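#structure-requests
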Amino acid sequence: MKKTASRFLTALVYIFLFAPILILLVFSFNDSKSLSVFSGFSFRWYTELVKDRHTLEAVRNTLVLAASATVISTVMGTAAAWGIDRLRSRWYRTVVDTVTDIPMTNPDIITGISMMLMFVFVGRLFGAHSSLNFWTLLIAHVTFCLPYVILQVLPKLQQMDRALPEAAMDLGCTPLRAFLKVELPEMLPGIVTGAIMAFTLSLDDFVISYFTSGTGFQTLPIRIYSMTKKTVTPKMYALATIIFFITLTLLLISNFIESADEGNTKQKRKKSKAD
């Protein structure tokens, strides 16, 4: 009875989580605009999506922004994690960890409003005609993506044997070569996972983007929000379906990298115990 009840509750939870997505996927192939009657299977709304120039422009803007924020936050986050790992003062490290966690725990609306006020203040200070643009949006996205990259890379450094870089330098490597040959491969799974997470977070963000974007640059979430004031056409279901499968692919890649890294870690531990 306990096993049956646990399976039933688990199935109920998964149905509750994924039923809306399943309905979205099904009705993205609906031949009509109806939200309750499936008239027939068709790629009509995918064709309409390709013809929508404004939506495709918003998709392009979103991808450019997400890619840029991912590259910058991954480089900065990796460097920051490497520096945090070398802090020896426990008090100083606690302070740095707390400051790193603030962008994640702070509500998005507070982060968005505060950054908007800062950008407007700095823009007025330098006499800028328009304070909000692509660059303010990029800075905002890097700000909230950065802690997630740090939290993915830092555990990999903590798992690494600290004697390995020193051993490499004792064997003739320069500090830079020891970093590239020893530390970077150890950090790589965390770097890739952090980059994937940063990309998906940037792709999905609406609240912070809404407050920090100007009128000349519109991301996809803002585009969809503007459409809700009138009506959301089924071609948005088609676009949401495409984004869902892209995100699912990235998630599978991330999980595969994590599984492979865990397997390599276990093998290394077995070898060290055998030695």
